Each structure stands twice: as C-alpha cells, then as structure tokens.
Amino acid sequence: MTPTILITLVVLWQLVLVGYTFTLAGNAADEAVRAGTATAPDARQGACEEAGLDKLPDAWKGAATVNCATGGGMVTADVQLNVPILFPGTADFPFEVNGHAGAVEEEVG
User: Fold this and answer.
1) Which domain of life does the UniProt lineage start with (predicted)?
2) 41/44 Cα distance (integer angstroms)
3) How far apart are the first and last CA of the chain?
4) Distances from the Cα of 15 to the Cαs of 9, 11, 31, 32, 90, in angstroms?
5) Are 80 and 29 in contact (CB under 8 A)?
6) Can you say whether the dihedral through the CA atoms of 69, 66, 37, 46 is positive or negative?
7) pTM as predicted
8) Which of 73, 83, 96, 98 has the greatest number of C-beta atoms within 10 Å?
9) Interstrand relation of 65-71 and 74-84 (parallel, antiparallel or unpaired)
C-alpha cells in the first residue's frame, strides 16, 4: 500500500506544478502587458519583457520567453514557460505552457 500512496503523492505534486506554471504564465503575461501599455512606444518592448520576468520565481526564469507586440491600438504579451519535473530548477518537460494577455494602448504624454 505504501508504494501506491507515494506514487499518488508524486503524481499529485506534478499536477500542482503544472497548474502553478499555468498560473505563473498568465500572471507574467498580465504584468508584461500592463507595463507595456503604460510605457512610451519607443521603450515598450524592454519594459514589457522586464515586467514579464520580474515576478517569476528563479526556477522558471531560465527558459522563460516574453514576447510583446503592438498593433491596432492593442498591446499583447505572450509568455512561454517550461513545466518542471518534480523539483523546480532541475529538469523540465519538453513542452511549454503559454500565457497570453492584451490591453488597449494608453496615450503616454
């Protein structure tokens, strides 16, 4: 019975890490697009990427990518994170979790 309980706990922990990675990706995209809308157009890309990576835990920052775009009066941010295997910061699954956010471009004066 003990091996079954341990395997169940490992599977549940891995599912928690997958869910947490989705949460981190969505939040990072929200933060990135928020910073991008409140920044002048010439500095938007840098501010957007920096804000997207700012609040990520170190274990997720290594392979994280933040892409920001502007068009049609909108600012969008896409964040890709890898899902760690059991222990964040060691090995990752070979697929990415994507977070996407968009907001209306603000007039910066």
Assistant:
1) Bacteria
2) 5
3) 66
4) 10, 6, 24, 26, 17
5) no
6) negative
7) 0.87
8) 83
9) antiparallel
Instruction: For the chain, give percent helix, strand, coil, nearest 5.
Output: 50, 30, 20
Q: What is the CA radius of gyration of the chain?
A: 17
* Cα distance between residue 81 and residue 78, in whole Å: 10
Copy the structure tokens of residue 65: 């990518």
Joined together, the tokens standing for residue 55 give 């609040």
The SS3 call for residue 61 is helix
Tell me which residue of 28, 29, 41 sits closest to 73, measured CA to CA: 41
Q: What is the pLDDT along the chain (109 residues), one digit of tens a residue?
A: 999 999 999 999 999 999 999 999 999 999 999 998 888 888 888 899 999 999 899 988 888 999 999 888 899 999 999 999 988 888 888 889 999 999 998 776 6
Q: Which two tokens stand for residue 83?
A: 């899902």
